Amino acid sequence: MDVLILMNDISIALYKKLYLMRRAEECIIRKYPENDMKTPMHMSMGQEAIPAGICQALGDAGQIYATYRSHAAFLAKTENVEIFFAELYGKETGTAQGKSGSMHLAAPAQGHMCSSAIVASCIPVAMGAGYANKLKANGQIACVFFGDGALDEGVFWESLNVASLMQIPVFMVCEDNGFAVHTPSQARRGYSSIMNVVKHYRCQAYEADTTDVEAIYRMAVDAMQIIREKPKPVFLYLKCYRYLEHVGIYEDFDAGYRSRSEYETWRQRDPIALQRQRLLQGGLAAETVHSLELAIDERIQRSIEAAQAAPFPQPRALYQGVFYEEH
């Protein structure tokens, strides 16, 4: 009975993460044309199940490092929509006092250590954090998210090699949405399967083609157990699909590099819809689900209003955070 109750709680927690991410980005789509959010937007729609499942498994012991497509990872780890929107509006109440924008979100106190707009650049940083955690034996687990385009960078292979050589306890999570900007995988790679290559390294490798957030959560839980029992790197290769253009808030099916029918196929496996249906089929009343959603909607709306009303940072803030400042 306790296990059933626990899993039900986790199922609800996962749905709340998913819904928060999706609704936050839907609000960005509505508000962005007002031109008050000046930062470029790399939207996470369609890919939310991966950071939601993994961050739920990591819990407070996780340190995450993300790409410029960082909305989902940031909200999955922190659930702090208030500092999220304040940052997008460039306000001093944002997570970086309005200076990072969408592509460099971070909240170290809550475990989101950094995001970077340079492809694959967070991977070696996570390796260093993982090695430090190993030396300190502090129970922390470093987790780095990156797209399939990062597999084409030398630093990915260097990091995988040193992590396997030194048995660094780190999650390497590849979110493969099939494209590096507009270029498909088959036009970039001289190998047929990344898993066939990675399995020859001294790491644990998992592969999945699923939008089921609970399946990803269970995979991450298994990986964490391996890391804790015998510190070693874990490589997670997860297929996904981004609904919108590479950068921006619109569709891009007229660009010619992918089809709307491909999108419609993935849309039938939408992670938010799947998890919502699971809750209903599991016996959670529709009124209860709606109440959870309404509370998140209201919180997002309050966050946007607070962000719009907040002050911009003072000019002197440009000179702060550039070098180390002793307090």
- Gross geometry: globular
How are helices and strands ordered from N to C? HHEHHEHEHEEEHEHEHHH
What is the number of beta strands? 8
Query: Low-confidence stretches at least 5 residues in length (pLDDT < 50)?
Result: 1-6
Helical fraction equals 40-55%
The computed structural class is alpha/beta
- The spatial strand order of the largest sheet comes to 2-1-3-4-8-7
> How can the largest sheet be summarized?
6 strands, parallel
Helical stretch count?
Answer: 11
Mean pLDDT: 94
Write a structural description.
This protein is an alpha/beta fold. 46% of the residues lie in helices and 12% in strands. It has eleven helices and eight strands. The strands form two sheets. It has a six-stranded parallel beta sheet with strand order 2-1-3-4-8-7, with helices on both faces. The longest helix has 30 residues, at 2-31. The protein is globular, with a radius of gyration of 20 Å. The termini are far apart. Residues 1-6 have low confidence and may be disordered.
